[in-house]
Fold:
Amino acid sequence: MKKSLLLILLLICSSLIAQNKRASLDPIAANDTALFRKVQAATFQYFWDGAEPVSGLARERVHLDNIYPQNDQDVVTSGGGGFGVMAILVGIERGFITRAQGVKRLETILHFLETADRFHGAWPHWWNGKTGKVKPFSKYDDGGDLVESSFMLQGLLCVRQYFKNGNKQEKEIAARADKLWKEVDFNFYRNNQNVLYWHWSPNHEWKMNFAVKGYNECLIMYILAASSPTHAVPAEVYHEGWAMNGKIKDTTVSYNLPLSLKHQGNPPNGGPLFWAHYSYLGLDPRGLKDKYANYWDETVNQAKINYEWCVQNSEGFKGYGPNNWGLTASYSVKGYAGHAPSKENDKGVISPTAALSSFPYTPKESMQAMKFWHNEMGDKVWGKYGFYDAFSVHHNWFLPRYLAIDQGPIVVMMENYRTGLLWKLFMSSPEIQQGLTKLGFTSPYIKK
Structure:
């Protein structure tokens, strides 16, 4: 009897120790987990209930006021859809959906990606979700978009790693994702030069003429291009093109916080904050370094500068402060704008994705903003898919509208902050580790 009682006590103690150990690994305070989950779950629904049903992909935009430009309710997006693919994995892990539901949706998405318009393996920015035909993003942008395709590939590699050791159906998903990745011809998008071009059109060829150079959201494209097992580009494309033969290294300091890279357009306090998000949904910046930068320091400092700019509020916008901050590309009072911390690019518009997707970098500041928006502003900024894309207290401007490219990073980066899920999946890809090594990167994931 005494032995049985002792055994029970030991089991209880072991359980409590295990629970405490798990709790200590969770960076979110116990009294904040419910709100954290609520925001993640509501935002996830943009990619689940809100998805276009034929393709299974994220719609480019959802307007709860039903006012759409060009009647584009059926338009789906490759980049935002890639973020949505990653969000589905979060949904499975968090129990928002079952694994079987996730598998079924991914089969629908993969079929669409396999059969929809592609251009030398790359997808366009937009398609019609019902037909798979390209919808021009602009006059000459009616073909392959290598940047947006890279955001999709980042997601597909996470899918491959997540399901590669699963059951027969799951292994098939992994294989199909792998095939799509291997079919993208990165070398073609060099246009016979040591740089990658953003666009190619079957009708206008290289008319867009956008050679991607200097720091912005596109680092992931160069890393994927160097890592491709089938169409890899040489290291010179990264160093001569993206890094401009070393000219990308150019330190600026704001609020005593240094940025080591030349942000595109030379903004005085860093670019829009999505530059610290899109490439790093899968690419883990923790401990990631090359001869140009320490990427953890770069992303953290960009987020902190963004925060400080809003707190200091030199332009005197109503509502700005430590509980209400975050400037990035989003809807704006007039159209769409690349909001950033400068006199020229700060329009008095706050974009929740800026702070929420920065949870890994600014956990305290992001949590403050999330609580304030939810608890104090409520329905003004919150709807069926979480926080609206953007709002302005200064202009008394609040619209119930969402964009896929802004919703996706919220789900993914909040999860990366909590568990590192997508970082671990993407960085576990052998070819990514090899590609990073080839470009001169070091990372805790790379085996020496």
About this structure: The CA atoms of residues 21 and 406 lie 34 Å apart. The chain is about 40% helix and 10% strand. Confidence is low (pLDDT under 50) at residues 5-24. The chain has one domain: 47-64+77-439.
